[in-house]
Design a protein that fits this description.
The structure is a single chain. A hairpin with a 4-residue loop joins strand 5 and strand 6. The chain has 123 residues and is mainly β. 0% of the residues lie in helices and 47% in strands. The chain contains no helices and 11 strands. The strands form 2 sheets. Strands 2, 4, 5, 6, 9, 10 and 11 form a 7-stranded mixed β-sheet that branches.
């Protein structure tokens, strides 16, 4: 069974930075696509960023220029570097992996999901 484990969340001041990590139970090259989604209280889950097996990235307009997704196959890990965090970034962040290079804002096409890590941006 594929497992994805997120870490790195926490409380941070506006303008601060965090790096989230997603450790997979197998080589990340086994998946055509991996990504990060988030869900704030009372809102639907939404796309943050994706990266495919060739290293091509995709970002939500709301995080473009502030967040960076990357992968380290030697560590079975995908990262999300978050800079210039804003209160609106507060959410539970989920790592996801898919066998097909198909994705949507909601992420229903992904095959595997982690349990999530909480990010809170507040002064």
């Amino acid at each position: 069974q594929v497992q994805l484990v997120e870490s790195g969340g926490g409380l941070v001041q506006p303008g601060g930075s965090l790096r989230l990590s997603c450790v997979a139970s197998e080589n990340i090259f086994n998946f055509n696509i991996m990504g990060w989604y988030r869900q704030a209280p009372g809102k639907q889950r939404e796309l943050v960023a994706t990266i495919n097996v060739g290293g091509i990235t995709n970002y939500s307009d709301s995080v473009k220029g502030r967040f960076t997704i990357s992968g380290d196959s030697a560590k079975n890990t995908v990262y999300l570097r978050m800079n210039n965090l804003k209160p609106e970034d507060t959410a539970v962040y989920y790592c996801a992996a898919g066998d097909r290079e198909v994705f949507s804002d909601y992420g229903g096409e992904f095959d595997y999901w982690g349990q999530g890590t909480q990010v809170a941006v507040s002064s």
